[in-house]
Amino acid sequence: MATEAKRSKVDDDLELSPLQNFLQWCHQVGLKLSNKVYVSKEGTVAQYGMLAKDSIEEGEVLFTIPRSALLHQGTTRVSALLEKEKSSLESSSGWVPLLLALLYEYTSSQSPWKPYLSLCTDFKTLDLPMFWSKEERDRLLRGTGIPEAVDTDLANIQREYTDVVLPFITRHPDLWNPDTHTLDLYTQMVAFVMAYSFQEPQGEEDGEEGEKPINPPMMVPMADMLNHMSNHSANLEFTPDSLKMVCVRPIRKGEEVFNTYGQMANWQLLHMYGFTEPYPSNSNDTADIPITNLYKAATQGIQSDLDRQLLEERWEMLCQMTQEKGAFVFDKQGCLTDTELHTYLRVLCMSKEEFSEFRENEGWEEDDEEISLAFSMEGLPGLKASWKQLIHEAACQTMRSYRDGEEGVDSDQVLTADKVALAALSSRQQNALHVRYGQKSILHRLMELTRSSFQL
Known about the structure:
single chain; 456 residues; alpha+beta; 10% strand; 4-stranded antiparallel sheet; 12 strands
């Protein structure tokens, strides 16, 4: 008995950890990892990450993965079926084939990607806001745009599963099982794709006039180990035979290697990936002013039915011209949607005669460079008083949409600066704070720069 117990302990010690098993699998599928880096949970900002064993120079390749090791609808063992019935799998997201492939491979004990998928035993640990309660989303994230985005996501996921996925898997009970491949598991797979997938950039010849659809997402083992930072140190490059993670700036020994998920504001990072960059390190942070808030600002002070009718005519034309885009976007340098904002302000502030002439001429030609300068943070104070008043009031309207309104910017600032109080918050509270305060800071500066004498 003692011998058996001893042998059992030895067997347990020899059993590979999920990470060791994954790294062994990487070697087997031809993934080449530089000896200057290693993967670990220790010393990283979140979950697994990649760290430098040695100093790394710009241009060095950190790893190369053959396309045959990527996981998508073209490499899964059910690829032929997915291709055969692709017309029945069309949806607004375009993700259904990949999600069906993931459902199949994730629940198959014989999947060739099992060592990779075993690293993610519970996708809810990603802690995307879609896994928070509705009450918590509203309490922590009201005004940020995330609750509305999550509500849309969940409604779309349920509709897609009910209308497209469930009928398909029911037709193929030998490969999928509705009792196993449930809406809950499907939602978790959506979170997995949101947080970990990559999309191959369109080639120059593909991007003309939007003639070809964008490339579908795919799972790239090892690449999804790297955490994100706006000031990143590595970038994924695509070649015909493989994908390569390439160093884009020198990395010191012991430093974590960061990839970039794109120029993403904190609200986008939290919505799609479940994390944020602590304020103020995210250089890509933005704040949205809903176009409807500019409309509300324009209605203030209207006293006659004639003036209201003129506003409605202008607004209807603007919405037709701009196809009712949802918001004006500001970052720390100024307005990123400056052409649209310029159009709205110019039309809304026209005299009756100017608007008639504008309508007859069907618009005007824009000087994009001049507009960009005018709607930078430095240029805003020099705008016409009527334009500044509309921007100011629209920003105020947006600030009031947060749970604590305009007063909250001061309390968020105090909390952000208090390291002890900040550390006492849960990760959800911290992430929500970084999103809120980043947005409010931009809006607050915008309000200050557009405050005119009539507002003092």
